[in-house]
Design goal:
The complex is a heterodimer of chains A (about 270) and B (about 350). Chain A is α/β, with parallel strands linked by helices. Chain A is built from 11 helices and 10 strands. In chain A, strands 6-7-8-3-9-10 form a 6-stranded mixed sheet, with helices on both faces. The longest helix of chain A is centred in the middle third of the chain and has 20 residues. Chain A is globular, with a radius of gyration of 20 Å. With about 350 residues, chain B is mainly alpha-helical. Chain B has a single domain, classed as ABC transporter involved in vitamin B12 uptake, BtuC, CATH 1.10.3470. Chain B has 17 helices and 2 strands. Chain B has a two-stranded antiparallel ribbon with strand order 1-2. The model of chain B has no long low-confidence stretch (mean pLDDT about 90). Classes of the chains: A alpha/beta (about 270), B mainly alpha (about 350). The interface between A and B is medium-sized, with 37 and 28 residues.
């Protein structure tokens, strides 16, 4: 019985999106989008600029409420949930342009991201109750461990704005992981990195995927990153899914080539 | 020792001040100045929570001071005054009841802040400024039209409470309460803002989208933060009304809100020690510029050219202080302390005290 339920949870999709559509006025940014991410998968979402990739992420993370369709995180519908609520269900994300809290130390950045399970409120913080001390110690310990495994320990008291770009990316991913996600959405993690940093990033993502037992869904323009990391790729253009499959299938898919390179008969 | 150095220093200072006041070493004018400093520290630090730490812009902070002042005044008259009939409570209980009355005033002010925060935090930026001004006017007009608490003539009778305290022991009681509540205010704010919970406020200031996505319940934190600020301003109002012994709705108008704003911007946004320092400087400056002799001295080159002109200190003061603000904004736009605390500006102080 026990074993069965465990098997079930392992096979349950972390994220299930059914016929999702988003319209901004007359523009259909996402049209009838479906996806099912199993736990432990590393999936890619690609498409030309303006294809609606980030809109999909914004919908999944709760920034927009979808015009149509349903999003299930871990089997639970997220309709009407604010982003912080969706995050506490287990979806964390990073941003295309790094969005760290630049005037707070690296340590604070990671601690504040654990707000959802802080478990104390204003009065506890003022009277410094037992619960406050216990929770705060727990949060600090989590943050400390995360800093150590990410090798950010030496930047603990630095301000993120003073860190090199690649380290900021790393910190942003570490911060996202501090919310204990089941699904990590990476929005163009390689944007702005040089080829050396990109190699590091590939190694980092693969390492995170193994170490943290988290499903990863990434948007990326660097094809080498996507092709090397992802086991499954979805391609969208003008809000519509035009192809999906393994990296090899995608590489030779005619619709993808058309979308990226244009038609032959111009 | 390092942990308690500031606490010891504060206690020594407070006791020293109280002794000096009790044995008439400092006269009642100096006492009033110290009490005003205390009230202003409460106003500027609490406003700094919203305008500095949270990065929103509210300019109706005096409205909450007004609510606190009226609520605690009315309660105080009910409990110990004779204006609404016989006092409800025996005069001997005043020492316990008075701080409770002030805190109730603060609590009501905190609840009333929902009037501003609930509609305005759904949107961003300028709306809070507009709504807070509107609420400031609303509250003043509402009180002006309530005849049973004096309307625009103001409300008095709180001195009975102070007399009741003096009957128990003849000492500088209001100074005592102001010192206590000022320390209480700074203590509450410091603990709140240095907890991980309160750092959510700073996160909202720096990147609200990231805060929301990183599981900070931004709307709730903003409302709570605003409630704390309003509540502390309400406490300040309660004390103010008991110091003066008279409240008038017009003393909490937009000019009072502006004073609080000036103190926050002078001190530096988001710096608690900056807010305290600027409240002291600002109040001191107001008192200094009240003197006709100093104003005459400052303006002597001008009055020599125009001998007919006789500037009055009360008017010129309000030229000087805004001018100061213009100068500060020109040469040090981040305020006296920027967003740093005392320990960051003077690292040597860290030897004596553990800053958070």
């Amino acid at each position: 019985m026990m074993a069965q339920s465990q098997v079930q949870t392992e096979n349950a999709p972390v994220l299930e999106v059914n016929s999702l559509s988003q319209r901004f006025g007359g523009l259909t940014a996402v049209d009838n989008f479906n996806v099912k991410l199993m736990s432990g998968e590393l999936t890619g979402l690609i498409g030309p600029n303006g294809a609606g990739k980030t809109t999909v992420f914004n919908l999944v993370s709760g920034f927009y409420q979808p015009t149509e369709g349903q999003i299930l995180v871990d089997g639970k519908p997220t309709a009407g949930f604010k982003p912080h609520k969706v995050t506490s269900l287990g979806v964390a994300r990073t941003f295309q342009n790094i969005r760290l809290w630049n005037d707070m130390t690296v340590f604070d950045n990671i601690r504040v991201a654990q707000h959802y399970w802080l478990g104390y409120g204003f009065f506890h913080s003022v009277i410094r109750s037992k619960r406050y001390k216990k929770r705060e110690a727990k949060v600090a310990q989590e943050a400390q461990e995360l800093l150590e495994v990410f090798d950010l320990q030496r930047f603990k008291e630095e301000l993120p704005k003073n860190l090199p770009y690649g380290t900021q990316r790393k910190l942003e991913i570490a911060r996202a992981l501090s919310t204990h996600p089941k699904l990590l959405l990476l929005d163009e993690p390689a944007a702005g990195l040089n080829s050396h940093d990109v190699k590091d990033l590939i190694r980092l993502i693969r390492w995170i995927h193994e170490k943290f037992d988290v499903s990863i869904w990434m948007i990326e323009h660097h094809m080498d990153v996507v092709m090397e990391l992802c086991s499954h790729i979805k391609v969208i253009d003008f809000g519509q899914t035009i192809a999906e499959g393994t990296p090899d299938e995608i590489r030779n898919h005619p619709a993808v080539i058309t979308a990226y390179l244009g038609d032959d008969n111009i | 020792m390092k942990k308690y150095s500031l606490n010891i220093l504060l206690v020594v200072f407070a006791i020293g001040l109280l002794f000096a006041a009790h044995f008439r070493i400092i006269d009642s004018y100096i006492q009033i100045v110290f009490m005003t400093i205390g009230i202003n520290i409460m106003m500027s630090t609490s406003l700094n929570l919203v305008n500095g730490n949270m990065g929103e812009f509210t300019c109706g902070h005096a409205a909450f001071m007004c609510i606190g002042a009226y609520i605690s005044s009315i309660l105080s008259v009910f409990c110990f005054g004779s204006k609404f009939g016989d006092p409800l409570l025996p005069a001997a209980s005043v020492l316990i009841v008075f701080p409770i009355i002030v805190l109730i005033g603060g609590a009501v002010a905190a609840v009333s802040s929902l009037l501003v925060s609930v509609p305005s935090f759904k949107t961003r930026d300028d709306y809070l400024a507009i709504i807070s001004i509107a609420v400031n006017y609303m509250i003043i007009s509402a009180i002006e039209n309530m005849d049973f608490i004096g309307g625009s003539r103001g409300f008095q009778g709180m001195k009975d409470t102070v007399w009741a305290m003096i009957d128990i022991f003849d000492g500088p009681w209001m100074l005592f309460w102001v010192i206590n509540f000022t320390i209480f205010t700074v203590w509450v704010i410091r603990r709140f803002i240095s907890s991980t919970y309160g750092k959510g406020v700073n996160a909202i200031c720096q990147d609200e989208v990231a805060a929301e996505i990183m599981s900070v319940n931004t709307n709730k934190i903003k409302i709570i933060n605003f409630m704390v600020a309003a509540g502390l301003a309400g406490c300040a109002g309660g004390l103010y009304s008991h110091i003066i012994g008279y409240v008038n709705p017009q003393s909490f108008n937009i000019l009072k809100s502006t004073e609080a704003l000036v103190m926050v911007y002078l001190g530096g946004m988001g710096s608690l020690s900056g807010a305290v320092i600027s409240a002291i400087i600002f109040t001191g400056l107001l008192e200094v510029l009240r003197s006709q002799a100093i104003i005459d001295g400052l303006l002597s080159p001008v009055t020599m050219m125009f001998p007919d002109w006789e500037p009055s200190a009360g008017v010129i003061k309000w030229v000087m202080i805004p001018l100061l603000l213009v100068i500060v904004m020109q040469f040090r736009p981040e305020g006296i302390m920027g967003n740093r605390e005392l320990g960051d500006v003077f690292p040597k102080l860290k030897k004596f005290y553990r800053f958070k």
